[in-house]
Amino acid sequence: MMRAYSSAHAKRSCAGKAATALAALVALGSAMPWAQASEFALAVSPPRVELELKPGESSRQVLEITNASAAATTFEIKTADWSLSADNSVTFYDELRPGSCRPWVAIERRQLTVSGGRPYRFRFELKVPPDAPPGECRFAIMLEGQEQLSEAKNGPAIPFSARLGVIVYAAIGGAAPELSIVGAAVQNVSGQPTPVLQVRNSGAAHGRLAGFLSGTDAGNLALEFAPATTPILPGETRAIALTATRQGDPESAVQAKLPVIVRGKLEWGKGQSQNIEQRFGP
């Protein structure tokens, strides 16, 4: 039988642990989440969980946790609230945030030891109250290793712990995203001028842009552009970068020579889309 463990009585948020250097990895995107630090080397599948539930429904889910280190690893497990900043960095909160749905969550246990090379199937359950209003329940399942000391050659060793967070989204009562492109500009992304769309979400659940746009840059190179898969949360406007690749080679990013005009259709949610024709650059 699973027991409910809430972080409501925790005294510190992740952001408040100033004395601890944190190595954190968050499954907001689609890649397999890994966190590695000394003897803490874990992978979790699926990389994120997305559910659709009605008020009064419940859903039991399984995360497969794999330990890549040779030795058995012990870590703490808990839920956390989180926020996403403008630069796409994530802050976790142990204390319940306003509107948190974490009281609806039950996890299998708070501490777990996983042997090397032997995956563990970890269970959690989300039970939506019958009177829950339409909206999106968002929380993280956090796996935190035991505190260690870094191996510093010069100066004192720094205490640090590794954390891995798997994000869970649950659309309640038919909540859905409603995205619209409200602006476009060239911004520096990782030190390179990059086409960026400003995307507003006026819906009740998070959304992600998908699809490919085509264009030709100033060097007459035919390109395809794919939007970043960063989630756009309800009520926010977020900058979404467009990554350029050669046509037919979506795995190899290239630097587009501006100006460039991109054309095509971007999609999100269930059958929602918007046509776009936009010039980037002088």
Write up what this structure looks like.
This protein is mainly beta. The chain folds into two domains: 14-172, Immunoglobulins (Immunoglobulin-like, Sandwich); 179-280, Immunoglobulin-like (Sandwich). Helix content is 0%, strand content 54%. It is built from no helices and 21 strands. It has strands at 21-26, 34-37, 40-45, 49-53, 58-67, 73-84, 90-93, 105-107, 111-114, 120-127, 135-145, 148-149, 159-172, 179-189, 192-201, 213-216, 222-227, 237-246, 249-253, 260-268, 272-280. Strands 1, 4, 6, 7, 9, 11, 12 and 13 form an eight-stranded mixed sheet that branches. It is globular. The termini are far apart. The model is unreliable at 1-25 and 34-38 (pLDDT under 50).
Can you give the mean pLDDT?
A: 84
Q: Could you tell me the radius of gyration in angstroms?
A: 21 Å
The low-pLDDT segments are: 1-25, 34-38
Q: Order of helices and strands, N to C?
A: EEEEEEEEEEEEEEEEEEEEE
Helix/sheet category: mainly beta
The number of distinct structural domains comes to 2
The CATH topology annotation of the largest domain reads as Immunoglobulin-like
Short description:
By secondary structure, the protein is an all-beta fold.
Quick tags:
Immunoglobulin-like; eight-stranded mixed beta sheet; 282 residues; 0% helix; eight-stranded antiparallel beta sheet
Topology overview:
Layout: E1 21-26, E2 34-37, E3 40-45, E4 49-53, E5 58-67, E6 73-84, E7 90-93, E8 105-107, E9 111-114, E10 120-127, E11 135-145, E12 148-149, E13 159-172, E14 179-189, E15 192-201, E16 213-216, E17 222-227, E18 237-246, E19 249-253, E20 260-268, E21 272-280
Parallel strand pairs: 1-13, 4-13
Antiparallel strand pairs: 2-3, 3-5, 5-10, 6-7, 6-9, 6-11, 8-10, 11-13, 12-13, 14-15, 15-18, 16-17, 16-20, 17-18, 18-19, 20-21
